[in-house]
Design a protein that fits this description.
Largest sheet: 2 strands, antiparallel
Shape: globular
Distance between the termini: 52 Å
Number of strands: 6
Structural class: mainly alpha
Number of domains: 1
Strand order of the largest sheet: 1-2
Radius of gyration: 20 Å
Low-confidence stretches: none
Helix content: 55-70%
Strand content: 5-15%
Number of helices: 8
Order of helices and strands: EEHHHHHEEHHEEH
Length: 278
């Protein structure tokens, strides 16, 4: 599988990169799936647009800030220009682990405005979220990043097992592709849970379980992992988050944590929930 030029095209002085195109397609795909799920639950699409407009910018901001925190030494502030460099997202550097809480904050704001419980919206957007994360990994392929350990055995120097990184002039594990496949499997599981679940928040908690486990495993192989001493920070953080998510998911499933039942809104045109969900 040949690599491509990271730059897709130019519009005057503006450089449009394949990474941005893939991420945009991923976001829109997740939004479309979320709208389809919202329609099933009787949520008006204008409310979903409002959620989208709050969640996406805050997700991008969270993704950038988390990257800066994880690479604090590279963003030491000694001048005003150093401070502005923190927000220079076009120069690269975002983390999906920061996008999740940032996007969740946007969803929370939209829920407060529309007086809808947060759990109700989180279940609706969870399948679209993991689909977007799967498709967005092709942006990492375009940028030749998010790869794993070097592969020296020529028998395994073939995609999708490995990917050739030009700047290293070597083959590495195609971890971006591994994660994409696992996220697509997760998408199928979440859609099944969403359509069959009789408990609010179960779909979203299943998402957290699945994705945190996937990321914990992928962080084991990443060449650009962030270390604290000899500990891979991504592995430790994702493993803890996965464990907590699993406990909460099980408690919801067995009824120890009561979250109510998912229902279709009786008056979707007013964006109001039945009294049983208020």
């Amino acid at each position: 599988m040949p690599n491509i030029d990271p730059v897709a095209f130019h519009l005057g002085s503006l450089t449009v990169r394949w990474y941005g195109i893939f991420i945009t397609v991923a976001i829109l795909s997740g939004y479309i799936v979320s709208c389809l799920n919202a329609k099933r639950r009787g949520v008006k699409l204008d409310m979903m647009l409002e959620v989208f407009l709050f969640a996406v910018p805050l997700a991008i901001l969270g993704a950038r800030l988390s990257y800066v925190l994880f690479h604090a030494k590279d963003f030491a502030v000694h001048s005003w220009s150093d401070f502005l460099r923190i927000f220079a997202i076009r120069k690269g550097g975002i983390s999906i682990l920061g996008a999740i809480p940032g996007g969740a904050l946007g969803v929370y704001i939209a829920c407060k405005i529309n007086k809808v419980p947060l759990s109700y919206l989180l279940d609706i957007i969870a399948p679209g979220l993991i689909l977007g994360q799967a498709l967005g990994r092709w942006g990492n392929w375009a940028n030749q990043e998010l790869y794993g350990r070097m592969i020296t055995n020529e028998s395994y120097q073939v995609f999708p097992i490995a990917v050739f990184i030009e700047r290293e002039n070597a083959w590495f594990q195609a971890t971006f592709f591994y994660e994409m496949v696992l996220n697509l499997i997760g998408f199928a599981i979440l859609m099944a849970v969403f359509y069959r679940s009789k408990k609010n928040l179960l779909t979203f908690m299943t998402y957290l379980c699945w994705y945190m486990v996937v990321r914990a495993v992928m962080e084991v192989f990443r060449e650009d992992a962030v270390f604290v001493g000899s500990i891979r920070l991504g592995v430790l953080g994702c493993a803890i988050a996965a464990g907590i998510s699993m406990v909460i998911t099980v408690l919801i499933y067995v009824g120890k944590i009561r979250t109510g039942k998912p229902v279709v809104l009786e008056q979707p045109e007013k964006n109001k929930l039945p009294d049983t969900l208020k």
